[in-house]
Amino acid sequence: MTDAAGKEVPVEYVQKFDRLRDKKVRRIVTSFTKARKALETLMAGTLAEVETLITERGVGVADRGNVQISSFDGMMRVEIVTRYSIILDDRAIEARRMMRAYLGQGLEQIHDFGPRQAALALVDDAFTPSRAGSLRTAMVQRLLNLKIIAPEWRDACEVLRSAMETYRGKSYLNVSVRPSRQQDWETIRLDIADCWPAGVELGRPEPKTKAKAK
Description:
- This protein has 5 helices and 5 strands; from the N terminus they run αββααβααββ.
- The protein is of the alpha+beta class.
- Among the domains are: 59 residues, no CATH class; 76 residues, no CATH class.
- Helix 2 packs antiparallel against helix 3 and helix 2 packs antiparallel against helix 5.
- The longest helix has 42 residues.
């Protein structure tokens, strides 16, 4: 057997527990590898099924390639959602400065302090990058969709749009069901973390039951 340092060790010199440990780990890894391949096959087959519907009927295709299809009774749903991220160049700094300057002077449409502070907070949130270093598309779009018609604001929005570059990210497959039309959708998760058996805790002996008196 090969040890952790890469040295060959005769089996008779390997302790019984180490041989058992090696066997168990290899068996688990093999099982997970097979399960991974099965999931990849399932994903490929699902995408092929969806592609057939799109090609033959053109159903469920939304903007940016998002897809949503449902069963006839509306109780089952398959979605393919593509995430997009926004990268900004140096002009975004100027756009943020212009927006904050305009909001700081006061809006003709907003007279009290609260809404103005909310708009300033929205600007700051929209320009705060995620952990990946990109801006959240929904936040930037929400900022650009504000109903402000002042020329100063429109100019700032144009600068922001010119600074934006959108990148297509990962696509996600979501399969969900709902027990009834009055209940929320429940995603069928294929995450191994969700499959932990209820009540199982490693390293803790099961409680002993008291013997019944005869």
